[in-house]
Please model this.
Amino acid sequence: MSKERSWASAATLEVRRTVQSSLSVLVSGQTVLVACSGGADSLALAAASAFAGRAAGLTVGAVIVDHQLQKGSAKVARRAQEACLALGLDPVVIARVEVGSAGGPEAAARTARYEALTALAARFDASAILLGHTREDQAETVLLRLARGSGTRSIAAMRPRAGLLRRPMLTLSRELVHTSAADICREIGHTPWQDPHNDEPRYARVRVRRALAQLGDALGPGLTAGLARSADLAAEDAQALDDWADAAFAALVEFDGPRLRGQADALAALPTAVRLRVIRRMCTDLGAAPDELSRSHVQSVDALVSAWHGQGPVSLPARVRAHREYGRLVVTTVLDAGDPVAT
Model:
């Protein structure tokens, strides 16, 4: 196929415009990598990225991650590689990964995939990794996290940009993206891969996708857009609360040797959402792993501030402990058998 198309459908033009906007802050000579499975979403992204990259003087490559979870996965990966090369991407690399079991099959595959993408971004000195998530993917993520009782930051779901990761098509409908992919694939003589796992109800994402379709039938066609918009609003609120908490941490918390101290009364005066963020940061800054520090852990520490009645120290993951001492909340790493003494 020629690298320059003589025509483009309305859907393809819209995908191109969206991707060009996402890449507009990059400068000529930089490298971006597209994560491509060979499915419709990622092929539409690959084609638009190749077009936008040429216009901006960027090097646009692709990474096909072979999770080796299905029979014939190597063939699927090679087909995706051929399609990306036909679209003008270079380099195009297949990364074969071993998927573990931590967190369940979906989480384990995602972890292996992102580790491979990050490693290859470092290898090629890439300034961005592009992911093909659409508005429907965002809506599904919001539903999943709502069902788990997640907070504002989590309900904000996937961000358009997070470190090296960029999701240029997050505001576009899956239907529009698939229309663009169909046009592109006809031109290069390729058939998008249909992941059989997308029809496996044992995966939470598949069950949510089906539930979202049923909710759409019951509540109207604006449901997906509404959920995605809720994610945007939650992201704005979460960022404001995070910024407030960072300012409060800087003003109220001091480093004292191997521990952090904050004035209990001043912390208690903060809104709960801000105070819990400050307390969580105090704990993680002293070594408690964020994914091991539960809400109940943070609430137990918060009680030393907001519901103080002489209770003893609170033990946290990674030998981090919190206690109250002369009107201060103290978070420390315990390196010996002695416990802090509440005063």
In short: DSSP finds twelve helices and eleven strands in the chain. The chain has a mean pLDDT of 91. The chain has two domains: 10-231, 257-333. The first strand starts at residue 31 and ends at 35.
